[in-house]
Design goal:
about 270 residues; alpha/beta; seven-stranded mixed β-sheet; 7 strands; about 20% strand; globular
Length: about 270
Amino acid sequence: MTGSEPAADPKGCCAAVYGSDLVALLLGEAYHPGGSSLTRRLATRLALTGGERVLDVASGRGTSALLLASEYGCTVTGVDLAGPNVAAATRVARSVGLTDQVRFRRGDAERLAVDSHSVEVVVCECAFCTFPEKPTAAGELARVLVPGGQLGLADVVAVPDRLPPELTGLGAWIACVADARPLDEYVALLAGAGLTTTHTERHDSAVTTMIDQIEARLTVLRMTAADQAAALGLDFDRAPTVLAAARAAVTDGVLGYALLTARKPGTGLC
């Protein structure tokens, strides 16, 4: 895929790519900036407690869901559009003995097959920006929360009309950049779904750190598994240009990363 391709089916393409082995080669365990450290930061802001029912939307290969179950005692359901991710996460949960506490299933964030008012907490990391119908997705995240329930969102933030050409198009959409929005626009989208933002904080340096990690992995892959990576779709010639554009965008304040928590109106959890 190249940055000039049209975003005909960004959601389906994102699911296919993030369920592939190529992403695992480039990103390792954590598929979002900040990795488990920022997941723990988000959990702290949400004041998670044992026994709370958590829905992890776009749960990837289950790293965050398993962390929330093992370290915070939550009961977690992970939903992801990519079947390979669901299968991989389920295998890991089984291998670490957490199948009674964590389960994974395939699902669409814009049409969640989850009962209304059924979970205390929804977590969505580095995925909301890729949803084509963001108001619909925000409504779904709000719908499944109990009155007084909380949303924890971690996502790429951007100034869309200032993004360089290398960070637009379907390839950049998959990289969680092309349809990222400013932080205040996320707040407004959630407000439109009836959720009140309670806290925001920026972690732009996490994007730069992830770029560093990807560049290091690219160097290793070029030396040790170039043919395998190329067969999976990695363009070694184009990748440095895209990464350099992303790094410059962070420096210029055009691209970054943020945590946000929000609450659904209500007097208590049920």
